[in-house]
Amino acid sequence: MSDLFADAAATMADEVAPLAQRARPRSLDELVGQGHVLGEGSALRRAILEGRPPSMILHGPPGVGKTTLARIVADASDRAFDELTAVSARVDDVRGVIARARDRLGGNGRRTILFIDEIHRFDKRQQDSVLHAVEEGLVTLIGATTENPYFSVNQALLSRCTVVELYPLERDELATVLARGAQMLGAELQDEIAEAIAARAGGDARTALQTLELAWETALAEQAPLEERHVEDVARKRPLRYDRDGDRHYDLASALIKSMRGSDPDAAVYYLAAMLEGGEDPRFLARRIVIAASEDVGNADPQALVVAVAAAQAVEHVGLPEAQLNLAQAAIYVARAPKSNASAQAIWSARADVRREGIQQPPAMLRGSNYRGAEARGHGTGYTSPHDDPARLGLDHLPESLRGRTYYRPSGSGQEEEEAADDDRGG
User: Which tens digits make up the pLDDT trace of 284-304?
Assistant: First the structure.
């Protein structure tokens, strides 16, 4: 009797499940996107279809098919599918799956796939609990994570898995997903409506299908055809995918820095906006702009550092949202400024010499002489201030063993142009 009720409940669940669940692909041929790893003839696709899938970590943003792919792998390879969610699973739950997998393998020779959703939330002890079962081949592990697994999964487990990065779906791929969803709903979906939904979905198939379903239900309630206004009503804000200590943080920070370095103010202000919208700490952004002002602009335009530091101070005194104006001004200034990394190269080169050769004593005439006995040691002897004797300007002040070395080489850009010309003339 319990099986009868369970079967009926499963049937009803399929009927009332959200569209994203009902439209879930059941095979690799139905799966949309991810051609870079699952295209015809690819090694991973062949392994899945031939029933020899490797343990793998599926890494990608929400709604790109991580759970769907795990289920497809289990079906295609005719393996039992056990699913755990790292948020609620305990070590005892993992041990229970492993015990069932051992009984299953010994009883009828059927192998097991253990799917762990949000595996990055497993601590080291929990990850270690599955390690030996994976190593022995007792279970095939498929972990899903939105975080970079190289940061969040321990190396012992990671070394036994294939890392598969899944990408956000392109708009044409989302259009295919939406067409399938519209057919299930019995909805007439115009191309421009599909494009509007895809544009707001951020590469997330689940979000696209949820938007379509709610927009269609709204249109039905009005007894009106599905229009773009329905889409706008249910999808007022595009979902933002951002993590302040993961891939998105580092990727966008890198893009911001390289855009300023590459003299692209439009890109710089875009990546600044993206990080602010994602909830990034404005002090982190201010620090990156201050660093860029010296590392990438330097003395080609010394004012860049003044502007950047002023923006950093403004962040502390003003705060968001108004401080976005100060950060934007500074980022644009640094991006538009002439570029030189001569100052950065100078300190990096000088520090490399110190690390390699130790700290060399300065010439005796440069050493401190403001104490009794300094004169007897020759400290300060022979030193004349260039204010008193301009001929002393430009003398080599380096330690004896380093005489003649050059650390600062003006780039010839911006305000360093004249200095570079003087060096060429031997001035």
Answer: 999 999 999 999 999 999 999
